[in-house]
From TrEMBL:
Protein name: Tripartite tricarboxylate transporter substrate binding protein
InterPro entries: BUG (IPR005064), Bug_dom1 (IPR042100)
Membrane-spanning ranges: none
Annotated family: Belongs to the UPF0065 (bug) family.
Signal peptide: 1-22
Natural source organism: Neoroseomonas terrae
């Protein structure tokens, strides 16, 4: 048996890996989790799940604040302008943290304005229609859109978000047209779709799952390359028609902090997030919502985000899309 001397024992913390020491960081004051979307959507749900877990783990309040608008850029700027002390976090997503950099002309932040902490969940978007739409399959839906000749309306959770661009890309590939009705988040979008004020949408499956199961909306296809385990009978859109073969979109949500936040804080929060993702109940809940946990290091998440920025930059340039973040 090895016996440590008092001097060796005192020196031991200095020899521990930075990741181990980082896990001792605690905010000491209330933490804000900014959601760049309206209440009721997937981003909001993920933020509240994260906030509840961290509040219990830290013994410190973690308050979720919704700052919607301008494709998620308003909420993002709230975090970019905040002190890099770990006490203001962003529950970011594919829209303002990947798509927005190429879509918006006048962004006041860049990828290096934020530091990636941890991916939380990845999931498909899903093409859903109001029950009044006379289509049971994607080919029937495309035929209906062509008959409507631009009169059909679709809802989005915000201009520049992945549900919006999912619809844009779909229409480009299918050779169809429809009028976009933009909402301030997935919650208002779902309300409008269920009410029949818009006829279809591409929504996060995590948001729409319970409404699909209840019959309040009909799912025609998922945007990922493969079918979702949560909806095994709903095809991947790319498998339904040859013209849609290139179509593939995954949405994601994760934690970011302002650039300049100390590495030890980032690693500590990441370690806390990995603990949350490792809970069986977290995985079960995500599966029920149609998504899956996305564990990994801050470096893993940063690499993933850079790849998403590059991918969507290519799509947006090919489609010739540009708008102002106002």
């Amino acid at each position: 048996m090895t016996v440590l001397t008092r001097r060796a024992a005192l020196a031991l913390p200095a020899l521990l890996p930075a990741t181990a020491r980082a896990q001792d960081w605690r905010p000491g004051q209330p933490v804000r989790i900014i959601v760049p979307a309206a209440p009721g959507g997937t981003a909001d749900a993920m933020a509240r799940l994260t906030g509840q877990f961290l509040q219990t783990r830290w013994g410190t309040p973690a308050v979720v604040e919704n700052r919607s608008g301008a494709g998620g850029t308003i909420g993002t700027m709230e975090v970019v302008r905040s002190a890099p002390d770990g006490r203001t976090m962003l529950l970011g997503n594919i829209g303002p943290q990947a798509i927005g950099y190429s879509l918006f002309r006048n962004l006041q932040y860049r990828p290096d304005s934020l530091a990636a902490v941890a991916n939380i969940i990845r999931a498909p978007n899903v093409l859903v229609v109001h029950p009044s739409v006379p289509a049971q399959t994607v080919p029937e839906f495309v035929a209906w859109l062509k008959r409507e000749n631009g009169r059909a309306t679709y809802g989005t959770s915000g201009m520049g978000q992945s549900p919006h661009l999912s619809a844009v890309w779909f229409n480009q590939l299918a050779g169809t047209q429809a009028e976009a009705i933009h909402h301030r988040g997935a919650g208002p979008l779902v309300i409008d779709l269920i009410a029949g004020n818009v006829q279809f949408a591409f929504d996060n499956l995590t948001t729409s799952m319970e409404h699909i199961r209840s019959g309040r909306m009909r799912a025609l296809g998922v945007t990922t390359a493969e079918r979702s385990p949560g909806l095994p009978d709903v095809p991947a859109i790319r498998e339904t028609m040859p013209v849609l073969a290139p179509y593939e979109v995954s949405t994601w949500f994760g934690v970011f902090v302002p650039a300049g936040t100390p590495a030890e804080i980032i690693r500590s929060v990441n370690a806390d997030m990995q603990a949350m993702l490792a809970l069986p109940e977290t995985g079960a809940r995500f599966t029920t919502m149609g998504g899956r946990t996305a564990p990994g290091t801050p470096e893993d998440f940063a690499t993933f985000v850079r790849a998403e920025i590059d991918k969507w930059g290519g799509v947006i340039r090919r489609e010739g899309l540009q708008m102002d973040a106002t």
